[in-house]
Specification:
- Helix content is about 40%, strand content about 40%.
- The protein has a four-stranded antiparallel sheet, covered by helices on one side.
- It contains two helices and four strands, in the order βαββαβ.
- It is an alpha+beta fold and about 100 residues long.
- The protein has one domain: 2-Layer Sandwich (Alpha-Beta Plaits).
């Protein structure tokens, strides 16, 4: 069993309030969850209105599959054009 974790830093330069940020992040999380078989949560930057950090996790049979899926999530978020992707870190753990 393999567990993959993606830490995705997003910038929302056109956002001007926490309420607006919540709406954008909610859309991104829903789109990711609908497209991929992963878990998504906002894990840092909750009090900042132009920055968010999403944590995405997936369990799978092998490392290449999990790593590939998480890289697809990064590309998917970039193609949504709802936020700028600042940084992404992928870690894969073998259990």
């Amino acid at each position: 069993m393999v567990v993959g974790v993606l830490r995705l830093t997003l910038f929302l330069p056109e956002n001007h309030s926490l309420k607006g940020k919540r709406g954008v992040i909610k859309k991104i999380k829903a789109r990711i969850a609908n497209e991929f078989n992963v878990s998504v949560a906002e894990c840092d930057g909750q009090d900042l209105w132009q920055r968010a950090v999403l944590g995405v996790a997936q369990v799978g049979p092998d490392a290449p599959y999990v790593d590939g899926t998480l890289r697809q999530v990064v590309r998917f978020v970039e193609e949504l054009h709802l936020a700028e992707v600042g940084a992404d870190e992928i870690e894969v753990f073998h259990c």
